[in-house]
Amino acid sequence: MWYLAPALVAALVFAPQAAAAPPVAQSDVNGDGIGDLVMATGARLTYLGDTALTPDDLGGSVYVVPGGAPAAMVNQASPGVGLGMSSTDKFGAALATGDFNGDGMADVAVGNPTETVGGLANAGVVTVLYGQRGAPYLRTISGALSTITQDSADLPGVVEAGDLFGGGLAAGDFNGDGFADLAVGSPGEAIETKARAGAVWILYGRAAGLTGTGSVAFNQDDANLAGAAEAGDLMGWAVAAGDVTGDGRDDLAVLSAGEVITGTADAWGSVHLIHGAAGGLSSAASSYVSVGNAATTGKWRGLVIGKFHGGANADLVIQADQRRGTVAGAGALVAVRGGASGLTTTTTVIDQAGDIPGTPEAGDYFGGSLAVGDLDGDGIDDLAAGELKENDRTGYVCLLRGGGAGLLSAPATAIGENTAPINAGEGVGEGFGYGLRILDITGDGRAELVAAAPWEGGTLQTGAMFVLGVGLSGTSLAVTSSRRVTRADLGTASAFGPGAPFAGSSLVLNDNQETPR
């Protein structure tokens, strides 16, 4: 069902503070010129027997919070959404927004990788809903796909158990025609007899919306892509879009979280960058980086793309389990320079061992949530990186400012709920920063940082998010204002507060594609 919050949220939370910025169609669901938040509620983060899941949140639910309007909620009882509620679903495990039909309003793709399709468990499904000006802001449109599986018309492949189709989502304009296109990761896809080798699907936008016409799929048995499909590669674990080559078209980064690199011990992972072109994505133009190019161990798990050096070429940032030689699960970032030929092998590992505040500790998961955007208004992207389990799951966020030297251009800043002017009184287990988004949601022309604390107040039912203004203190980023937004403020029928992920960000969850197998 669709649920609309009371109008008080418009005035209390996201009332525009100045003239609205020009329309941002890739995130503006209702077309009012102000960016909108799309996020999973805390329902997916709870246990299966939580009685609060029924009737509205079973299997997951999603908030839509327009910048200048009341909030709404989407679940699998909403018209045109999914294949029905189930306790094993992960509706909202991946989210993406983009204007797939070119009407000036952002559309929303929702991944549910554990959906059972035709009796095949964990096959996965993606729901696509289209923006509209009036509440509840999202709708299906005639002729476009709203429920997408590998059995949808004109899509390559067939539905199989364990595919985890929809485990990764990204929207970008890969052919430069002005319509957003959708990339869908399927890390559990079997390639011939190679279980969980993984693959990625591309659906192209057009005035009629997303259809299977012209859709393509890529896997590592493509002769033009580095490597070969192998069991456990998990290609499509995460995907991200951005213009790395600087040609005005988005490129697609595809993470293979289980990729084994010969000669590299105790480390798994690679990223293929498939370059955008006028005819769409083609494996004939691609670039590649792997754990063999970076001093990390464990798996690579998440990724984002941003112009952290400024200029025409975006860079790639990958989340890794840890820097080589540090403790397990501490977390690290691998920054990869982009150029006209795509990804280079120039990498920088960033972690708490000297680069940013703090000390690497087991299980902190630094970089477990990532958000990209220009926080200080200098035209260069900055990065917010969550430390998901720092201090017994209290949670913190690290702000890294982009510049001529990339993400190490200025000293990084660590913030938490005790940081002024947040002053919310941090608590063990609240998970501050579990979800992150950088977006102008007030219409004042400056991006805000939104940080979710799903367990705020001790339970997922009371979870909250913080809308933070960010400026400069010397050369470093600093929080300048803060507003706390609770489930009660959002006011929909969901029994859960703000959760994670946010559309447009990266998140490494405990319930990611490692399980079920």
Q: Specify the overall morphology.
A: globular
Q: Count helical runs.
A: 3
Q: What is the subunit organization of this protein?
A: single chain
Residue windows where pLDDT falls under 50 for at least 5 positions = 1-23
How much strand?
A: 35-45%
> Could you estimate the helical fraction of the residues in percent?
under 10%
Q: End-to-end span in angstroms?
A: 31 Å
Rg, Å, rounded: 21 Å
Which structural class should the secondary elements be placed in?
mainly beta
Number of E strands: 31
Report on the structure:
This protein is mainly β. The chain has helices at residues 8-12, 390-393, 487-490; strands at 2-4, 37-41, 62-65, 72-74, 94-98, 107-112, 125-131, 138-139, 147-148, 168-172, 181-186, 199-203, 216-218, 235-242, 251-260, 267-274, 286-290, 296-306, 315-323, 332-339, 342-350, 366-373, 382-387, 396-400, 413-415, 435-439, 448-453, 464-473, 476-486, 498-502, 506-507. Strands 14, 15, 16, 17, 18, 19, 20 and 21 form an eight-stranded mixed sheet that branches. Strands 1-4-3-2-30 form a five-stranded antiparallel sheet, with no helix packed on it. The longest helix is centred in the first third of the chain and has 5 residues, at 8-12.
